[in-house]
Every structure is written in C-alpha cells, then in structure tokens.
Amino acid sequence: MTLKQEIITLNEERNVTLTAMIQSVEGEFSFKERPAVIVMPGGGYSFLSDREAEVVAYPYLAAGYHAFVLRYSVGEHRAWPNPLNDYEQAYAYIRARAEEWHVIMDKIAVIGFSAGGHLAASAATMAENRPNAAILIYAALDQHISSACQPGIEIPAPMDHVDGKTPACFLAASRDDMVVPISNTVHFLDELDKYGITYECHIYPFGNHGFSTGESYLNGELSSRTPHWVADSIAFLEDLFGKLTAEGMTTPACSPKQNANADETLSVKCTVGYLRQFTGKVPELIPYFEQVDELGDRLFGDAGASVADQLCFNVLFGMFGKSEEELQQMEERLRAIPNITDDAKR
Prior knowledge:
This protein is α/β, with parallel strands linked by helices. The protein is built from twelve helices and ten strands. The model has no long low-confidence stretch (mean pLDDT about 90).
C-alpha cells in the first residue's frame, strides 16, 4: 500500500500532535475514500505510551482504514478539558482536510487505552463532534478511576454521560486488571444498554493492564485469546460501517442502536415495553398490545408480556398481517410524538 505520513502540530505549547497515516485511493484502487480511526494512547494522563500508538494503527491500515494517532495534552498540561479540546481540534482538522485525504467523515472510530480510553469514551459521550464508533480497551470509565488519572483535578466520568447520541462501542479488558477494575467495563455496558446502544465486549480471564494489541513482544503472560480483540474490533467496525471492498463500502450489517427508546421522538423501532407508556397519546397502539399479550400468554405463559416487551414494535407488526404501508403510517404517527416521559433519563 502507498502510505503518506504527516505529523501535524495542533498545539505547540502543550506539545499536542496528530500523526496522519493516509493511504491512496483511486488509481490501482477502485474506491474514492476510506473510513478512519483515531488512536489515543494511554499513560494515566502523565505520559503517552508508544506501545499504544502507531503499533495499534497498523492492523487498521491493513484493513483499509486511514489512521491517526493523537498525542494529546499530558503531564503539566493534562488539566481537563485540555485533552477533550485536543480531540475536538483533531477532529476539526481531519474534517477540514477530509476531501484532500479522502476520509469518509461519517465512518470515523476512536480507539483508546486506559486514560486514552477515558478520552475516547469522553469523545463518544460528551464531545461536540462525536465519533461514529468507540473502541475502548481497559478504559478508565467510572468516577473513581477517572479522578485517579488526574488527582486534584475535576474530571468527568464517561459512564455518567452516556446518552442517546453515544455511538456503538467495542470494549475489551482483563478480569484481573489491577489498575482499572473490571467493573469499569461491566458497568459501562449497563449504561449503554439503557439507551439501546449496540456494543461488543470481550473480558479475558487474565492479562492484567496494558496489554496493547496483545502481541508477545509487548507483554508478559496473558490469555492466548487476548490478541483476538484487534481482529474482532475490525470486524465490529465492518458490521457497523460496512466493509471496504474493491467496489467501495458494503452496506452495514447492523445498526448502532438496538432500539429507538432514546431517540427524540417515538418510532416503530422502540420496544413494545417502552411504547406502553404512550398509549394515552397514541391509542392506536392498544389493539396491537392486546394481540401481543394474547400471543405472548399463549406461547410463554406468565412470562409472555416480559418477553414481548423486549422486542421492537416493528418486529411484531408483521406477525399481525399488517402491510409495509400500514407500518409506515404507524411510523409517521409515532414520529409526531416527542419522546418525553416523567422518569426518562435524558
């Protein structure tokens, strides 16, 4: 592959740089643009680990992605929100040169490790320019560990800021991590689940903290499966973004959300259980729920309602012999209703 590498200084005073690894398009390639990843090394906001920088970018380059390594503010310049501002500046810089570099701007993923995982997760949950996916590896996500990264400095915990705009996430960690407890990963999944966010997670039985790509020259003893996270994360992105082929990007295989419960308006992609709250505003739903409950009772007994409540409404719609036109009419009806409940977490 033809690879152009350029180091851009984003902030000279804070020594913030963006290393751009840009691949060719057209010519021998028959596509015009590529997806991209932004890699954020760890280091506890004290330094930036080279073990989690360019070496991480290479597998994604091989998969056809452009790659960027963001060396954000650390050490004496680490005070929040400097690192998040560095991400925003890097994103804006990539966007400004997207046409020149042939970057698909709605197919950009962040990859972060440890404190870099905190920054990547913050970008996914708090930034003005959200990435389209986040890959979080032994990431600092709760308030206790986030604060430990910057003692004496007020710093937000990404776990507390997950919302309906959070992109799909891939997470990996070790069960025996003694630096970032595994609860950071497990509880973050609970937050993603509240908003129906698509995710994939791998928790390996041992390997502690800082395993990077899992290659033997970077590590001591760790699970033989740990290195699989790299290929798995690339496959995860291909499911979300589509796969880069000789003809360009394929159609994505899955949605970044499992349901529309956290959208601004209602939708047929909301779950049945969620829509039950709105029968007063949309009485047309009541006959369908009666059929759902009858069918659920017949198939699952007392558990019927709870089983049906987890399903998206559009999945059940066709079971009642309704047409696509009728489904579209219901979608238009629901989209006219703001998604506001008394206990909704917004």
